[in-house]
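New to this. Please check this record:
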Amino acid sequence: MLSEISADVSRLVRDEIELAKAEIKQESTKAGKAVGMLGGAGYAGHVVVLMGSLTAIFALAHVVDIAWAALIVTAVWAVVAAVLYTTGRKRLRGVNLKPERTVESLKEDAQWARHPTS
C-alpha cells in the first residue's frame, strides 16, 4: 500500500511539474511576441527620426514638392510606430508568468493530502 501511495505521489508531482512547464512556456511565448512588437516600435521610431531629419533637410535646402513627399512618409512611419507600441504594450500587460492552474492544483492536492477522506 505504501508503494502505491509513493507511486501516486510521484506521478502527481511529475504531472504538476509538467503543467507548470506548459503554463510558463505559454506565457513566455506571449511575452516574447509583445517584446518583439515593442522592438518593432523602437525600430519604427528610429525610422521616424531619420525620415524627419531628411524631411527637414530637404525642406530647408530646396523647398520643393519632394519635401512634402518625405513628410508624408515620415507621418506614415509615425503611425506605424504608434500602432506597434500600443499593441505591444497592451499584449505585454496581458502576460502573467505565474502558473495559475498549477498553483490552484497544488492547493487542491495539499488540501486532499490533509483530508484524504473528503
User: Anything to note?
Assistant: The chain has a mean pLDDT of 82. The longest helix spans residues 2-61. The chain is about 90% helix and 0% strand. The radius of gyration is 27 Å.
